[in-house]
Amino acid sequence: MLVDLHDQGQDRCVLTCTECKQRVETGWHCPGCQDYDLCINCYNTKGHTHEMVKLGLGPDEEAEEGQEGGNQGEMQFRRIREARRLSILRCIQTLRHARYCRDVSCSRTNCQKMKLVMLHPRYCQRQANGGCPVCKQLIAVCYYHAKRCQGNPCPVPLCLNIKQTLRERRLRLRQQRIGNRLPQG
């Protein structure tokens, strides 16, 4: 799940269909469900009970939008950025859920995977030298969470440490700005 999140910015595939597991550029996302996306084919054949939002931009839509005079590159960038933002939010929701979940056979999508990801750093041999992609992605998701977290104490792993680091960084930047404003002399 974290690898998929990381890879989204590197290729044009931004969604994985919940039904057929196919990675697609254009699809439909359900804002009301936890981690529920459909490719166009599954959306058309199976449908969904909630209203869904179209994300991505496939070749067919590019041609249509180009004819309408819209800036297709900018539209595609916005859609990819929004899909990435939604993916990060879903990852954070799954992280929060998995942290509290004690159900061994939890039915929520990706709960078991996230539990394994949270345990991974305890046993990772490559973490010490910064070479583990799973550890890096877990830290990245915890970082996104910590930037907006108001919880005290927060159950998300690393949140407290990251918040402290962010506070120290802001303080250093503030001190540098003040130091740069003072007259030299």
TrEMBL record:
Residues 12-60 form the ZZ-type domain. Keywords: Metal-binding, Nucleus, Transcription, Transcription regulation, Transferase, Zinc, Zinc-finger. GO terms for cellular component: histone acetyltransferase complex; nucleus; transcription regulator complex. One of its GO terms (biological process) is positive regulation of transcription by RNA polymerase II. It is found in: Nucleus. Its EC number is 2.3.1.48. GO terms for molecular function: chromatin DNA binding; histone acetyltransferase activity; transcription coactivator activity; zinc ion binding. This is histone acetyltransferase. It comes from Myotis davidii.
